[in-house]
Fold 5,10-methylenetetrahydrofolate reductase.
Amino acid sequence: MALLQFKKKPVETGQPVNPDVEAFLKDYSIEVMPRTAEKVEDFRDLLPEGTRVYIAHIEGTPIEDMVATAKRLANEGYPVMPHFPARIIRDKAMLADWIARYQGEAGVEQALMLAGGVDKPHGDFDSSMQLLETGLFGDFKRLHVAGHPEGNKDIDPKGGTANVDAALQWKQKFSETTDAKMALATQFAFEAQPIIEWADSLKAAGIDLPIHIGIAGPAKLQTMIKFAMACGVGPSIRVLQKRAKDVSKLLLPFEPTEVVSQLAAHKAANPDFNVTNVHFFPLGGIKTNAQWAIDHGGASAVPASQS
C-alpha cells in the first residue's frame, strides 16, 4: 500500500534544530505495547513514514493482541519488529506458531530476540541464542538482539560483564552465518560517555554489530526513576538522582536532550562510531516522545519496502 505523508509539523520553539542531533535521529525507532498502541488513533499523525516500531511483549499479553497490533501498524505503513522473549515461550512449537501468525497475518520480517524479564523460564528457552539456534527465523530480513551498555545483573548476577561479553561474541559469530541484517538494541542509559566507552570496547573486541542505542523518551522524573530501577539501569541512574535533589526541577519532565546531543556530537566527530541509530522507550507516552523527536529534527526516511 502507498504510505500516507507524515502530517505532524514541528512546534515553533524559536530554537534552531541542532544539525548533529537531526542527523543522529535519522531512522530512529520507537517501542509500543498493544495497550498503549490502542490509545493512538492513527500512528501516521505521530511518526514519520518508515519508522521501525518495536512491539514489546510483556508476560501475560496474549499473542492475539500482539499480532493484531502488528497487523494494524503494518497496515498504517510501518515496519514492525515484535519482541520474542525467550523465557515466556514454552517450546519450539509455540515459537513456530507465533512466527507463522506474525508472518501470515501481518507480514512481519523483523524480530527482536531477548531473554525476557521473568526469572524462571516457562519452558525450553532461557536466552535469545537458543531462539536463534532453532533455525525458525531463517527467512527474516532483520534480527536484533539485546545489548547492555551498563551490564545486566540477571545475566551476570555476581557483577561484571563476563557472561554478557560471551553472549555478544556468540551473537557476533551468528551474524556471520545469516543473511539477515543484525544489530544490537540496547537498554536505555542516561550518560553519553559510558555509552561511548562501551561501544568502543565492543569494536575493540571484534564485535561490529551496529548499535541501536536505547534512549528513554521524555517523562516525569518520578516515572523515569521508577522505570530505571525496574529495568536495572546501571550507574547512569545517578543523573536522575542528582536531578531529584533539585526541588525546582522535581516536577518538570526529564528529557533526553543532553545525552542525545552529546552522542550526536561524538557521532559527527567520529563517523565510524558504531552507534548507528536511536531507539526510543516512550516512558512518558508515545505522543510526548514523538513530539520531542519532531522538535529535534527526528525523521525516519527508510521506506518500508527497503527496511
Q: What stands out?
A: Residues 89 and 241 are 36 Å apart (CA to CA). The first helix runs from residue 19 to 24.
